[in-house]
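Troubleshooting entry. Yesterday's outputs looked truncated, so today I'm pasting the complete records for two proteins to confirm everything comes through intact. If either block looks cut off, that's the bug. Protein one:
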Amino acid sequence: MNIVEISEKFPTELDAVKYFEQKRWGDTPICAYCESPNLSKRGKDLRFKCYSCGKSTFVTVDTALHSTNMGLKKWMFAFSIVCDAKKGLSALQLQRNLNVSYPTALNMYHKMRNLMIIENDTIELEGIVEMDEMYVGGKPRKFNNGETNKPLVKTSIPELDERIDELKEVGIKFKRGKGNPAKSAENPKRGRGTSKIPVIGIVERNGDVVAQVSKQVTSKQLKEMVQKYVDVDDSVLISDEYKGYSRMDEIIEHVKIDHQRLYSYKGVNTNSIESFWAIIRRQIIGQHHQVSLKHLPKYVAEAVFKYNNRKVDDMFETLVINAMKSHKMDNIPNSL
């Protein structure tokens, strides 16, 4: 549901509240505290008073949106804007779209990612599945000679030094800005063996994907993830020749492809999971630029949620339904 449809179908805050009530309770609202249908008429604040327990009740009580100060119609706009952004969007963009403060936009976005994690926890894969890892972190910086394996001695450009000195005489000074001075360590590593954060993923051909942040990539963790999300009896696993996959034959039919020789052979490849990694990279590089380990599982969960719902337009409704679930589900872990 896009923002135009929301504006037309829910012109007032009351219409939005009734929509959330229908998703939580159906046609008959009940008390969120004692579940009694014995309620007063709706007050000006859109709340009910329960005649059974005497409490003032509202549709967001004891849900993922418990104690929110934001109107539900604005939450609907937020759900729609985020769902329409295939590769995510920045909290600053959400702030501008909703006309709220940056901390509010950031907290709302993280709340929505928590709702996506709830949905992702029910994924089941079967058939031909591909497994791989990606590593989140910046690329090694190159030295001034364009290489990463050996530093170059300090560079001197006489004609440019002369021009800089001339400008200094007339009061123009060039200063280095704050930030990374573009230094690099010798022989920086890429991929496995780096200090970057690993993310493990499994995708079903033409189906869903599951991905989790992991502190390490070990054979035990890889096997546990396959056993948790894949129907091992009716599936075939494709991976590269990383040694962590060497014992997959014990639990599932397993085919390996040597990426040192080629990337695809007669349909045996990991192109689907690589395509998913490309989405995450574009999301991080293009929208967020960098993410912390603390919040990385949520960014991954967002990419997984949107990928798995790419063929059906139910993301908005799914977020509304999940928002009406118990707030105790708010911090479901999404990392190994």
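Protein two, checking that the full record survives here as well:
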Amino acid sequence: MTTGSTTFPVVFESNGALLTGRVHRVADDLVERQPTVLITGSWLTVKEQMADRYAAELVARGYTAITFDFAGFGESGGEPRQFELPSRKIADIVAAARFASSLSFVRPGALGYVGVCASAQYALAAIAAGAPIASFGSVAGWFHDTESAAPFYGGLDGVRGRLERGAAALEAFHGDGTVVTVPAYEPGNDRAGMFFEMDYYANPARGAVPAWRNEMAEASWLPWLTFDGLSAADAVSVPTVFVHSDGCVFPSHVEALRSRLRGPVEIAWGEGTQTDFYDQPAQVSFAVEALDAHFTKTLRA
């Protein structure tokens, strides 16, 4: 094995859409079978953001990492574009796990998943739906339902207003195929997906990378605000680690999930805000230490 890293593109199908991903590994060929981790980031993001950041760290520790764009985002196919549709993303994770399991350089039975922020709740649902994932890691996981999400959007009145705008956008799409979009991030814009100050999405040195399209299909409010990211826990028995902090979203949900999951659960409680865990050295280092310890026991054994 060499100490240099290599990366190359892959494509696979999910419900008729061609998804584009990248394999990251430290190896001089494609023969050595390694424990492998699929990695995805927050809602409305692409692989070049949180996912590739964690891939680089885990590859340096001897894992193969696979990052990919969900249908409708980044380099992947799929229509409508920029549509945050949980059911589609869950299906994409199932497809990605089945694809990864078919690769000859992936150690059989040693496929893990790292979900950063919102994709953690989608991964949990995908595992419950039968995705061949042997071990799960959540980093600053966002697990919500309508009641817990409402305070982010001005309470239930804010939710109702967004659902109305989402319904109007869906009607436009059904009418003539128009995809009504709003900014994914714009401070002070109540119609944006994220409308409060977040340096991660404003800073080109962090998350505002060229590959990221700062748009959200406004119809996304319908599935996003009514999604239940907690209920799948009752059907999940794979070993799980939650990397979280008091400064991350929904810290009480981590403990609630811990009691509902059917398999062994570890919690690594650190310090920092939600977006610190996306890319900041101290928080990423803390998370990777916990993930490596977890996957060493569950994928390398």
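Both blocks look complete. Sanity check on protein two: The first strand starts at residue 6 and ends at 14.
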